[in-house]
Amino acid sequence: MLNFIQSVDGRHMRPGALARNFLRRRDDRHRVSITAILECRGITQNVRVVDFSASGLRVDGIRGLATGDPIQISLTPDISLAGEVAWAVWHKAGIKLLPELDETQPAYLFLTEQAFAIEQLRIRALASLAKDRASAAGRPGRGSV
């Protein structure tokens, strides 16, 4: 049996739909960790891109940006994207890409490669932890934590 939540406008939604609606996510996000150069109103700053989708980026380490600010972000010397600040809180911001990325564009391919590398590292780390715990559990006098 599925539980539904009533939203403020009276509609009934599944809990996941509420979160998706609240966060305004249309596309799946992919985790990355890329140092980039963000330019806004002639001022450049180093930022870290921490996730991406076809429609946007989330960046950390921003200073002095406000919702609606037009930006240019350089991921590499050859890959640059245009967008606008969708939201900014403290040192974090969501960037709406203008235009959205297409899966065949170099920027999308670059970001996807970075996300794949991070996922592979995560899988290797989990496998190593599982192996260490399994071998520790098999030794006399040592138990799992």
List keywords for this structure.
37% strand, disordered N terminus, elongated, 29% helix, 145 residues, 2 helices
- Secondary-structure-based class equals alpha+beta
Main sheet record? 6 strands, antiparallel, barrel
Radius of gyration: 20 Å
Number of strands: 8
On the 0-100 scale, what is the average pLDDT?
A: 84
Distance between the termini: 36 Å
Can you write the helix and strand succession as a string? Answer: EEHEEEEEEH
Strand order across the largest sheet: 3-4-5-8-7-6
SSE blueprint:
Blueprint: E1 5-6, E2 12-13, H1 15-23, E3 30-40, E4 43-52, E5 56-60, E6 70-76, E7 79-89, E8 92-97, H2 106-138
Antiparallel strand pairs: 1-2, 3-4, 3-6, 4-5, 5-8, 6-7, 7-8
Task: Tell me what you see in this structure.
With 145 residues, this protein is α+β, with helices and mostly antiparallel strands. 29% of the residues lie in helices and 37% in strands. It has helices at residues 15-23, 106-138; strands spanning 5-6, 12-13, 30-40, 43-52, 56-60, 70-76, 79-89, 92-97. It has a 6-stranded antiparallel beta barrel with strand order 3-4-5-8-7-6. A two-stranded antiparallel sheet has the order 1-2.
In short:
The protein has helices at 15-23, 106-138; strands spanning 5-6, 12-13, 30-40, 43-52, 56-60, 70-76, 79-89, 92-97.
